[in-house]
Amino acid sequence: MTYRTTRQWTLALAGGIAMIGALSATSPALLASPHPGATPAFPTHHFWDDLNLEAMPGDAWERLRENLAWQERRHDARVQHWIEHYRANPGNVVEIIERARPWMAWITEQVERRGLPGEVSLIPFIESSYDPHARSHRGAAGLWQFMPGTADALGLRRQGGYDGRLDVIAATNAALDYIELQAEQWYEGDIELSLAAYNAGAGTVNRARHAALARGEAGEYWQLQLPNETMQYLPKLNAIAAIIDDPDAYGVALPEIDDAPAFAKVPVNRPIELSQLARVTGVDASELSALNPGLTNGSANPSTVEVVLVPVEQEQVVLAELSAPAPQAPAGDSQYLVQRGDSLSAIAARHSISVAELRQHNGLRGDTIQVGQTLEIPRRSLAAR
């Protein structure tokens, strides 16, 4: 097993944090008893279906299958129960997997690079139904369902219109770091026990393990007495892995996904409004928004994030736009970068101009401004000083 160590000084802070706020269910439709002929719980069309991506060699599912490591678990009665549960409503399974389209190849690649079992790539199926915006009633958020305290300990920042829990790149790296660190710290590299701790917390798993050993039983996940949610966690994961490994056997038609990320990373070297970037480059605004769920106010600032994600086939046009010199303010004008706590009236007062003038000069229809937004300050305010 390959372990990453570059962030362990941060991850050590998280060793004792219980991730009890993680969502254990995929969706209400999958938790409930399936009804034949039921309408799928998710939209049947996604803008990813319309992307004219250049064909890439390889298939994401084949790559994932090559890395599956727990096939023998499929004979467990708990796994068989969930296989039957999922196969009874294959439309819901496919709809959830459709949400993974932009992320599946990249997540699989990260899991493979670390030498982790391929099943780990499917944890977001169990945690969030592959919805980066998913939030639980307990406060967990994102594809990997991080609680605020755990996210803080792992360095997933929440500030300035940015939530690292919703940032798929940052949250995936943090989740895999955390899983590896717990396995190394508590379980002699046992990833199954680490995943149980990911769901229930290390304290809960360690107590169950010690109790099992005291009874003379094995301390492996499948022999432990854990909360029901955690007892079902790995069976769900292994069940969906079994279906993906042989979809024809279970009557599931997996969507085709290329074995290459659907997005590219573009450096952020100046404040960027996603809506404006979409206008000047022709990139669909909904695609930019979907690829950057961590940018909660629709803007990126170099003080907050290093990159924005864009559809891979439009990387060059976006790079060209962001590499061009920033527009210069008219002679005599100045620029102001909106900070946390700013209001339009406060900025106007600071520069000795009226709110109406500031609003008109920047084409604002109301008084709403966002952190990281650049405002032009009219030259009159400079002369008045």
Note down, in words, how this protein is organized:
It contains 19 helices and eight strands. It starts with 7 loop residues before the first helix and ends with a helix. It has helices at residues 8-11, 28-31, 60-67, 77-87, 90-99, 104-113, 123-128, 148-153, 168-186, 191-200, 202-214, 228-231, 233-245, 274-281, 285-291, 315-323, 344-350, 355-361, 379-384, and strands spanning 158-159, 162-163, 263-267, 272-273, 299-300, 307-311, 334-337, 374-377. 42% of the residues lie in helices and 7% in strands. It is mostly helical and 385 residues long. It has three domains: 8-250, no CATH class; 263-323, no CATH class; 334-384, Roll (Membrane-bound Lytic Murein Transglycosylase D, Chain A), CATH 3.10.350.10. A two-stranded antiparallel sheet has the order 1-2. A two-stranded antiparallel ribbon has the order 3-6. Strands 4-5 form a two-stranded antiparallel ribbon.
